[in-house]
Every structure is written in structure tokens, then in C-alpha cells.
Here is the input.
Amino acid sequence: MTKIKLNNVKLINSLQHISFTKAAPKLISGLLLVLLCLSISEGFGQNRRKSNRRARLEAAKRDNLQKIQEINKIIEKTEQKKEVSVGKLNAIGERINKQSRQIDIISENQQLLENEAQELSRVTTELSGNLEKLKAEYAKMIFASAKTSNKFNKLSFLFSSANFNQLVRRYKYLQQYSEAREKQAVLIQKVRTELLAEQVKVLQKKQEQASVLREKITETQSLQVLKGKQSDVVSQLSQKEKALKNQLASNKQAVERLENMIARIVEREIKRSQERERNSRSSNAGKSNKSESSNKSIAMTAEESKLATSFSALRGRMPWPVGSGFISDHFGVHRHPVLKGIKTNNNGVDIQTSAGNDVKVVYDGIVQSVVSIPGANMIVAVQHGDYFTVYSKLSNVNVSTGQKIHSGQKIGVVATDNDGTSEINFQVWKNFDKINPENWLRGR
Here is the structure.
């Protein structure tokens, strides 16, 4: 895109006041050519930046659409059951979030198009003005040339020179003047072509704006439909308050059993590490002044310490235990999505996903427990030095206690409950401390 800035226009205006001396024609054409080249170069630079921004928007849009398709599959699965469920409500809520994100992306693209349209209009106006200025300058050159031709015949102009050197200079002047007119004509044609190209771009941009506006209207209408569906589900669930409270009590018991199980595993591993440490000190009596480890942390070997250090480096880039899905219940204490005045606590995060998806360990480690707890299905606890990751609500577990496993290895399949909800609970512990997995999982 050719863009001639306002300061460039002012410079072109100033050329009108240059007297047509021997060097004027060459100076005018040269400056105009330089300005045009600079404008074209500047336009290319801005085009690259806008293209990069547009590419990022398109990538974000594609990524968000993929997530919407995944959530739609999850919703379809929950809708196979006639009864509404909290799982279905969570899926619709996440679908609304992604729909809102899609509208935000479209709005950003809409603003980008608006800015581009305004810039194109500005450039078109400038080009039109510059074309008129170039024509005016060319007319002056022709007029000056005509006046010269009327007063002096070219031959008499040359042969009336006082000496040979003056004759050569006059000859060069006439030659340069002729070349300047030709360059000015070429420059006019070039600007005229640029102007026509920009006018076409303006029309294309308006068509793009209209298309994006239609898309935004469609997505906004879809959002309103989803919000209506969400309200209906909340209304139906509110009528099942007793059943929800019973389910909540059952879930609470399962959470307490799971928490106690993990605490026992950590305590057991601390005792084992302390016993190992005492045996090491006994066999090396007098050779080490190393103090006994705390009762609240594992005394690690060099290998375990290395594993824990590398595990801690996963913060913010830890792979997800399932290939697709979204966080349906967050870490910590928060309000129940339906029951008023009721709060729930999650020691990890619930990740809702598609039925039958594989569950994979997030890092190298040793399986410390494979058990079944009512309300939590099958559970796998994996040790990574003094860190532990816990995967519950599984079916068809593929590993066993004491087994060494590697990052990305399949440990089971996500279980699906009677409501058609497929989700796992994922927890991260460091000794007895519970850690928010959302701070560790990579962005999705």
C-alpha cells in the first residue's frame, strides 16, 4: 500500500514555490520519486504488522473453534441422559465462556478492519491530492517549456552561447528538462495506478466489514440461546435440591477418604525415608554430621531429589492428564453452582472431558497406590520425589503399585457417571501441602 504522510504532502506543496532554474526540473522529479519510494516502503512495513496481527487473530479463532467443538461433544454426551446434571450445567457454562471469547475475537477483528478502512480512506484522499499536485507541477513544466520555445529557438539558444562550455551546459539543461517531464509523466501514471488500487481495497474492506458484522450477529444470537439453555438447566436442578444435597454429601465423604488416603501415603513415605536415613547413618557412624529430617517432609535420595527438582520446573508448563477437556471445578473453596448458601472444597481440579479418553501421568514417577473409593471410582497416586500427583474417577487402570512409569504413559481411562458426565479429579501435593494444579498446567 502506498502511503504518503502529511509531512510529505507539505514538502510536495513547497515544491510549487521553487523557481524553474536549470536544476529545478530534475530536483522536483527526484524529490517526488524519493517521497513515493519512502511511502511505499513505509506502507509495506505497516502491512506486515497488520498481517501478523490478523494471523494471530485467525489462529486464536481456529483454536477457540476447536475447543467449542470439543465442548459440544461433551454436551451432546450429557444430553443423552434425560435428567439434567451439574456436569451438563458446567459444560454449558464453559461453552458460554468460549462463545464469549469467540465474540471478543470477532470484535477485535472488526476493530482492526475499521482501522484499516479508515487508513485506506486517508491514503486514498492523500493520493488523490498528490495526483492533483503532480499534475499541476507537470503543467508548470510544460508551460515553462512552451515559453522557452517561443522566445528562443533551441538551435539559436544553443549557438548563442558565449563559449563552448556554455553551449554544453545549455545542451545538458535542455536534455535534463526533457527527461524531467518524462519522469513526471511516469510518476503521475504511477500515482494514478496506486490510487485506483487503493480504491479497490476500500471496496473490499467494506465487504469484509459487512461479513464480519454478520458473523458477530450470528455468534451473539448463539450466545443468547446458550444463556437461555443455562437458565433452564439451573431452574430444573433447583427443583432437585434434595437429590443434589445427597449427592454433595456423598461427594464430601469421597473427598475426605481420598484426602486421608493421600495423607497416609505421604506419612508412610516419610517414615520409609527416615528409616532409610537412620540406616545410612548407622552404617556411616562418625562420618557424617547430617541432621535428621523433619517428620513433615521426605528425606530424599540424590535420585529422588533430582526428580523432585525437575518436577518443580514443570510449573506453568505441565501437560494435562487428558488430551482434551476443560476445568469444570476449580481448586479451593467456592460456591455451589446451584445450591444457594452452600460452599464446596476441591483439593485439586475437576477436568471434564469426552467419554473414553485416556488418562496419562504428567511426569516420571513411581505408582504408590491403586485403590477404589466409592464416589471416586479408581484412584492412582504417583510419587515424584517429594511431590505427588493423584488421579481419581478412573476406570480400566493400566498400572500397579510399585511400578515405575514415564511422562505421558497411560494409567487408565476416564470414568463416566450415571448422569453421562466424564471427568477426572487431578491433585498435586508436596509432602502434606495441597497445591493448586491450575498454576502448574500449561495454557490450553
Remarks:
- Residues 152 and 233 are 96 Å apart (CA to CA).
- The helical segments are 6-15, 24-79, 86-151, 154-159, 164-238, 241-283, 302-312.
